[in-house]
Design brief:
The chain has 1 helix and 11 strands; from the N terminus they run H-E-E-E-E-E-E-E-E-E-E-E. It is mainly beta.
Length: 178
């Protein structure tokens, strides 16, 4: 638990709200639902996206991703934060667990040490658990070129209002830092 808290405290400031957002200017795609999401590529394209209760949450660039060996244990995180909108950030992370290519991993935060995290408001985060959970499938893990890609989906409880959010059609493709 101590290492998980450390990773969350380190990771969230990295996804600070400045400079990592999709803008609301004329360059923003005019699309609906899944049509706004980036393609499910496997090239290190720097993309992250999903539907939150059917509404798009996406990044074309500005994705933070790392996979690190710390004290003999592996830590992974990929996600994106934005300045405006709801939710503010979505992150997929693992603590003390090696990422396995082609293996469907449970995002329950208990059995597998793999989590889905949603920041609903500043410093109000929700994490998947044994009741509200989902899956992560790593479709590309290229350690030579430091590329990781995958798909995910989960549901999560907003601690502020008790509403359950459906995170579906999730995908990411990024270079990762070691």
């Amino acid at each position: 638990m101590k290492k998980k808290l450390y990773i969350l405290l380190v990771a969230f400031p990295l996804w600070g709200l400045g400079g990592l957002s999709c803008s609301d200017d004329d360059d923003t795609p005019n699309c609906q639902g899944i049509d706004c999401l980036p393609e499910a590529t496997q090239t290190g394209a720097g993309t992250f996206g999903c539907l939150v209760n059917g509404e798009p949450f996406y990044a074309f660039g500005g994705v933070t991703c790392y996979y690190q060996l710390i004290d003999g244990e592996y830590y992974f995180a990929v996600g994106f934060a934005r300045e405006v909108g709801f939710p503010q950030a979505i992150i997929i992370e693992s603590t003390e667990k090696e990422i396995n290519f082609g293996e469907n991993q449970l995002l329950d935060g208990v059995a597998e040490n793999v989590y889905g995290v949603v920041r609903f408001e500043s410093f109000v985060n929700a994490t998947t658990d044994s009741i509200y959970n989902g899956t992560l499938d790593v479709t590309t893990f290229d350690s030579q070129n430091q590329i990781i890609s995958g798909t995910f989906e989960f549901e999560i409880l907003n601690p502020n209002d008790g509403e359950v959010y459906q995170i579906t059609e999730g995908r990411f493709d990024s270079f990762y830092a070691q």
